[in-house]
Specification:
Layout: H1 2-17, H2 20-39, H3 51-54, H4 57-69, H5 71-79, H6 82-86, H7 92-112, H8 115-124, H9 129-154, H10 160-176, H11 180-187, H12 192-200, H13 203-211, H14 217-243
Helix pairs in contact: 1-7, 2-4, 2-7, 4-9, 4-10, 7-9, 7-14, 9-10, 9-13, 9-14, 13-14
């Protein structure tokens, strides 16, 4: 595990050695604020909560996370530095987890930088801060799921633009799978078990309860399972690319 953290420190530092992390954090802060106050009608709702803020997170992550994660492995392959990384005394799995942890920590930093919104809602009213904490935890877990998918896709190609487009499509599948228009496609031929399974894959389904303050075990396990499965797939892809 120490090697994972060593890779994470290396990657975390490399993000801030370039404008990537700063641009990502700035865009996240600006967009989340604009969507909360203007689109979400924060002040006119007359409720002391952060639901307008968290309701836009799946859609923010759908675009921002793939854009942020597209360089993780694609850049390594394009620049030829993946051979140097693999020459270090670390396994492929440790390298994959290390890169993921670095990105996940930056996502956590982005969420922490929005705490002025939390202070604002406490100044304006008396919110249930337990609900807000649960929503932050849920958002971070969901963001980790978006990251794992995007990092795995990044390992498939040397082209960052291709990695971004494919990652957005893959993440969108997990976002919209619970929509009625999507489920209607399955209702004409699939059993209720299949329909329920497709609906349960939606990030929105699991995050919605978390954003309302309910940290159910099945929702937490779902996001952790998505992260684990996609990071494992990423390890297999990186290992095969190295062998090739």
């Amino acid at each position: 595990m120490r090697r994972c953290f060593a890779i994470a420190r290396r990657e975390f530092g490399s993000f801030f050695a370039t404008p990537v992390a700063y641009v990502y954090l700035s865009i996240f802060l600006v967009l989340s604020s604009v969507l909360t106050f203007f689109v979400g009608d924060f002040y006119h709702r007359g409720q002391a909560d952060l639901l307008p803020y968290f309701s836009f997170h799946p859609w923010l992550y759908l675009l921002l996370v793939p854009a942020f994660a597209m360089r993780t492995w694609a850049e390594e392959r394009k620049a030829g530095t993946i051979e140097l990384l693999m020459s270090l005394p670390v396994s492929v799995g440790e390298a994959v987890v290390g890169k993921f942890l670095a990105c996940w920590l930056i996502l956590a930093l982005a969420l922490m930088m929005t705490t002025p919104l939390w202070l604002t809602v406490n100044y304006l009213g008396n919110p249930d801060n337990g609900v807000i904490v649960a929503a932050y935890i849920g958002s971070w877990l969901m963001g980790g799921a978006f990251l794992a998918i995007s990092i795995c896709v990044s390992a498939l190609t040397r082209n960052q633009v291709v990695a971004f487009i494919v990652a957005v499509i893959m993440c969108a599948v997990f976002v919209v799978s619970g929509f009625e228009m999507v489920l209607d496609i399955f209702r004409s031929w699939a059993s209720n078990t299949i329909i329920d399974t497709v609906a349960s894959l939606s990030f929105l389904t699991h995050f919605d309860t978390m954003s309302r303050g309910v940290l159910a075990a099945d929702d937490i396990v779902y996001f952790l399972l998505v992260i684990t499965v996609w990071l494992y797939a990423c390890s297999i892809i990186v290992d095969e690319n190295r062998a090739a």
